[in-house]
Write a structure and sequence with these properties.
Elements lengths: L3 E4 L2 E4 L4 E7 L8 E7 L6 E6 L3 E3 L7 E6 L4 E6 L8 E8 L5 E3 L3 E6 L1
Parallel strand pairs: 2-11
Antiparallel strand pairs: 1-3, 3-8, 4-5, 4-9, 5-6, 7-8, 9-10, 9-11
């Protein structure tokens, strides 16, 4: 069982920045593929960024968001710059283990005001 706890969400003006953190339990964090997803009101949950053998991003956040991880701290981060009102959503962290089991965090709210 992997537990994920997100933090760092909040209210920010358009053009501002936030850094989200996701702390994971488990002794094999470095082997996990880690993801950030988001879900805006009335919309489907969507992929934002991934960190595994390589990193990848949704087109909508490329050049503005950066995913990184600190394996010594069992933590993955999402640095979000040049935020837009359309980035407003609940942001979720997801971990996928080598056994292909997936775990989700509880989410953290990000609100970008115009």
């Amino acid at each position: 069982q992997v537990q994920l706890v997100e933090s760092g969400g909040g209210l920010v003006q358009a053009g501002g920045s936030l850094r989200l953190s996701c702390a994971a339990s488990g002794r094999t964090f470095s082997s996990y593929a880690m993801y950030w997803f988001r879900q805006a009101p009335g919309k489907e949950r969507e992929f934002v960024a991934a960190s595994g053998r390589s990193t990848s991003y949704a087109d909508s956040v490329k050049g503005r968001f950066t995913i990184s991880r600190d394996n010594a701290r069992n933590t993955v981060y999402l640095q979000m710059n040049s935020l837009k009102p359309e980035d407003t959503a609940v942001y979720y962290c997801k971990a996928t283990t080598l056994g292909a089991r997936a775990y989700w965090g509880q989410g953290t709210q990000v609100t970008v005001s115009s």
